[in-house]
Predict the 3D structure of the following.
Amino acid sequence: MKNIRIYLAVIAFTFSTLINAQIGERRDGLALGVNAGMTWNTVAFTPTIQQKQLMAPTFGITFRVTSEKYFATVCAFQVELNYARLGWKEDIVSSQNQPLPDTYQRQLDYIEMPLLARLGWGREERGMMGYIVAGPQLGVCLGEKEKYGATWTCNEAGEPDRPNGMFAQYGLPIDRKFDYGITAGLGGELNTRAGHFMLDARYYYGLADLFKNGKKDVFDRSNHGTILLKFTYLFDLRK
């Protein structure tokens, strides 16, 4: 319930920011385009699973509505529909001295929809503009894949030799396909006659767990944390 309240508060803030901003110079800009970039993802497990960041691609389409300029701030609403590969990559230290150390990663393919309030400062027509984005994000997992290494180190009991004795995740499919959370970031935009070229960095914090977290379940917590670096190109449908 606490996560849901946080999520609803972020949605309310995103839309109230845009609604309350309608007291400046009106803008009627519409822009559409594409985006592509990279994600670096981990999953916050409790009990802990030692990890490295899983690096993978993301790409999609972007639609932006510019509504007004309030003093020096250009206010817009941005919606994206993206594909992203998330998941985790384990750092199995117990086998690092082996000729072929153990490796494991879980790849999760998502369709994501960020709903972003965007505030920009700088030149609207020709030149550079800096901006921040923030808002809720929804996601649906379309599929998952496990990748095991060629070797698999076990202890005397025949169990995978892992930090904290955690190996229940192997072969265990995720329980919750629907994901939601909060994303925020900052970037720069170059505005030209040919369109808008943007580069931004974001962080996504998932509020939903991948696995069930009841008293009898393995994990108390299993949510995404994602760093994104993204390039976007937009062309104007209406200025």
